[in-house]
Design brief:
By secondary structure, this protein is of the alpha/beta class. It is 33% helix and 26% strand. The longest helix has 22 residues.
Length: 198
């Protein structure tokens, strides 16, 4: 890859990941690659996100090869939320979203995001873990947030960059990691494949 060629493949449909990469000046082409995101029995959060990031990278790379696309880095990522060892994915419905938000209220939980970059047979991976502290939430707080529609496509039923920002007292770690793509780790990985920042 030449320093002027900043194009990558993105194996993710997340608009937040796309925005963060574009802020870094990375030009991307989205690759659609679905995988089974079920948690394996007894699987810990870090093992889960790292496995999914690798599997998404492998599925995306298969698309690149099958379509005869040029070789360039492919980025995939997976984010999950964990509290007391339980993994909280995207909510199934409003009741599930309310259950998650009640669990987080007045406590801290962890947001785990793993990022993988693959090109040809080489794959590199980094994981970011951020502690997120929620204030106490009333049932009205929870219901108003659910009514906004924001929780439904997000791990843990909330987005730090949206309306739920008012619930978060503080974080220890990566703000962009909670959004779904830790910028520091992402830039480090892409640097291994020839990208230069800024």
């Amino acid at each position: 890859m030449t320093p002027s060629d900043t194009r990558i493949y993105l194996a993710s449909g997340s608009p937040r990941r796309r925005e963060l990469l574009e802020q870094l000046g990375v030009h991307l082409e989205r690759i659609h690659a679905d995988i089974d995101e079920s948690v394996l029995p007894g699987e810990a959060a870090v093992a889960y996100t790292e496995r999914l990031a690798r599997e998404k990278a492998a599925a995306g790379w298969a698309v690149v090869q099958n379509c005869g696309l040029p070789s360039r880095p492919l980025l995939s990522a997976d984010t999950t939320v964990v509290l007391d060892g339980e993994i909280y994915g995207k909510p199934a419905d409003a009741a599930d979203a309310a259950r998650m938000l009640r669990a987080f209220a007045g406590r801290s939980h962890q947001v785990v995001t793993s990022v993988a970059v693959r090109q040809d047979e080489r794959i590199e991976l980094r994981t970011s873990i951020t502690e997120v502290y929620f204030r106490a939430l009333s049932e009205d707080d929870i219901q108003r947030y659910i009514n906004s529609g924001e929780p439904f496509d997000k791990a843990g039923s909330y987005g730090i960059q949206g309306l739920a920002a008012v619930f978060i007292e503080r974080i220890e770690g990566s703000y962009t990691g909670v959004m779904g793509l830790p910028v520091f780790e992402t830039a480090t990985l892409l640097g291994l494949f020839g990208h230069q920042f800024p």
